[in-house]
Structure formats: structure tokens, C-alpha cells
Specification:
The chain folds into two domains: about 100 residues, Helix-hairpin-Helix base-excision DNA repair enzymes (C-terminal) (Endonuclease Iii, domain 2, Orthogonal Bundle); about 100 residues, Hypothetical protein, domain 2 (Endonuclease III, domain 1). The chain is built from twelve helices and no strands. Bound molecules: iron/sulfur cluster.
Length: about 210
């Protein structure tokens, strides 16, 4: 991998020493539930909701059995609670039907679960099973393309390009670094470039400077 990417990784690592998964979970099942709830919702709010939810729901079987109205009541603060309740119960049913109640550890099988796409599968692989994967969410997509690490139009193309651009043992942590960078520094509308150590490398920053 090229020296510039190593430098960018190092700077991101210095800027975000606590980068890591912010969804509280104690097993793969709790993680996949939290990831589904996190769509369009902050991790902080998801953690408040799951603390309540996991008192009643400990297994996929519990999730299939719980009354839909009760489930919606608990997850209501996460937003889109009708859809999320339906997705959670469909996912749990497919875990039971296809994998004997065990959350799979590989992308191909994870993506067979109802409502689980590539991004969710990558998060579960990396966080629950310690595998190397780059889940491309809105932050990873925006920040990696802004900096110029990649130049892609879709999340999947971004993931593949990042996998080529960085050594495999860096993938999972790179995913966290880019999320933290997007959440706390490189805001979608107002990036805090004055607080960012990447100015010297960042394509977006350099282009904006030229226009001034
Ligand atoms: S320099 Fe600005 S645009 Fe570039 S990564 Fe940093 S905050 Fe984002």
C-alpha cells in the first residue's frame, strides 16, 4: 500500500484514539439487533433502547415470540419502529429457520438473513467475529471519497476500492476511524477542516482552497 495512505491512517488514528464500535452488545445476536435498530438513529439512543429490550429478548426465539405491539413500544424511540419491528422479527425467524438459531459468521450466510445487507453483514463479521471487513455507511462513503482515498459512486465500489488501498489487517479499524472522522470532524454540511489533521492530504480541502 502507498505511503500516503499509511500517513492518512496514522493521522486518523491519532485524531480518534477511541475509535471503535459504539453499539453496546455482548453477543452476535445483540449486535445484529442493535445494527438493525441503528438505521437513521444515533448509537446513543439505540443503546438506551437495547438496554431495555435485552431484558426481555435474549434469543432469536424470544424475538419471534414477543408481541409485535410490545416490541414496537420498546423500540419506538429509534424511529421507523413499524418497519424495524417487522425486520427484526423476520431476521430472527430466518436465523432460526436457516441457521438453527445461531448468527452466522460469514458474509454470504449473513446476507441470507431477512433484512440483512452487505453493510450489516460486514459490521457483524468484524465486530462479533473479529474478521476483517469494511462496512461502508454514509460516513465511510462520504469521508473516504472526500479525502480522495477512493473515487467511487457507490458504497459497494467504495468498499472494494478501500480493500485494495489498505492492508487487510487495517480494514476493520479503518472503518471505525472513518466513521469517527465523519461523526465528529468531517460533518456532511460543515466539515471542521480547521480542526483536521488531514488538510495536507485531503482532496476536498485542497479543491475548496483553490476556489477561494
Ligand atoms: S480537511 Fe476538511 S474535508 Fe478534509 S477530511 Fe478534514 S474535515 Fe473533512
Amino acid at each position: 500500500m502507498n505511503q500516503k495512505n499509511i500517513e492518512i491512517y496514522k493521522i486518523l488514528d491519532e485524531m480518534h484514539p477511541n475509535a471503535g464500535c459504539e453499539l453496546v452488545h455482548y453477543n452476535p445476536f445483540e449486535l445484529i439487533v442493535a445494527v438493525i435498530l441503528s438505521a437513521q438513529c444515533t448509537d446513543k439512543r439505540v443503546n438506551i433502547v437495547t438496554e431495555e429490550l435485552f431484558k426481555e429478548i435474549k434469543t432469536p426465539e424470544d424475538l419471534v415470540k414477543i408481541d409485535r405491539a410490545r416490541l414496537e413500544e420498546i423500540i419506538h424511540p429509534c424511529g421507523f419502529y413499524h418497519n424495524k419491528a417487522e425486520n427484526l422479527q423476520k431476521m430472527a425467524k430466518s436465523v432460526i429457520d436457516l441457521f438453527n438459531g445461531q448468527i452466522p459468521d460469514n458474509r454470504e450466510d449473513l446476507m441470507k438473513l431477512a433484512g440483512v445487507g452487505r453493510k450489516t453483514a460486514n459490521v457483524v463479521m468484524a465486530e462479533a467475529y473479529g474478521k476483517n471487513a469494511i462496512a461502508v455507511d454514509t460516513h465511510v462513503f462520504r469521508v473516504s471519497n472526500r479525502i480522495g482515498l477512493v473515487n467511487e459512486d457507490t458504497p459497494e465500489a467504495t468498499e472494494l476500492a478501500l480493500m485494495k488501498a489498505f492492508d487487510e489487517n487495517m480494514w476493520s479499524h479503518l472503518h471505525h476511524l472513518l466513521i469517527f472522522q465523519g461523526r465528529y470532524i468531517c460533518d456532511a454540511r460543515k466539515p471542521k477542516c480547521d480542526q483536521c489533521g488531514l488538510k495536507k492530504y485531503c482532496k476536498y480541502y485542497k479543491n475548496n482552497e483553490k476556489l477561494k
